[in-house]
Amino acid sequence: MVPSGFPRHVSHHQSGFTMVELMVALVIGLIIVLGAGQLFLMGFQTFRQTELLGNKQAALTFATEALIRDVRRASSLNVVNVNGDKFEVIVPNSGDVSSPSCNEGEDVTKRYWVESSGDGSSLYLWVGCNGVTIEEPLAEGFTSNGFPMPTDEGGGVWQLTFRLVSSLEGTGSDEFVFYAVNRNEAIN
Fold this sequence. Notes:
Layout: H1 19-73, E1 76-81, E2 85-92, E3 107-117, E4 120-129, E5 132-142, E6 151-154, E7 157-165, E8 173-181, H2 183-187
Antiparallel strand pairs: 1-2, 2-3, 3-4, 4-5, 6-7, 7-8
Protein name: Prepilin-type N-terminal cleavage/methylation domain-containing protein
Pfam families: N_methyl
Transmembrane segments: 20-41
């Protein structure tokens, strides 16, 4: 017999989650994790695109500054065919070529061209003065035909075209056209 004051019917209290509650919590957690993963991937892709754009801008800036400076002060400009098309500029050495064989004021021959390698295509520079030559990559990120030979527009004006890779996959290109004026030809 149950003493008075005590309920006759004893209920059992639940000590956990039901299967439905557990499934709902798992679905909500999965949605949150997938959303966070998607945000991470979008941030990573944005970072890579920004990095590509920065590299492209740096390559373009460096290449144009070097070429335009040389075109402006050149005593001679030629498109030559030496193992492929190369743009040749002859400039007086203003101290930018430090070599025991090349004194300040002497003529320096510079050749520019794009060459493909395993990592892509780069703009190359060949420098020659009094029999001593140096060849090195100047800037990366160009397409295989990334530096079509400059064209003489007349009056000392030269058109320089650069084609850089436009995507992370290496497909497509962005074309940039610049004009440089050779001071010696423009004055004459």
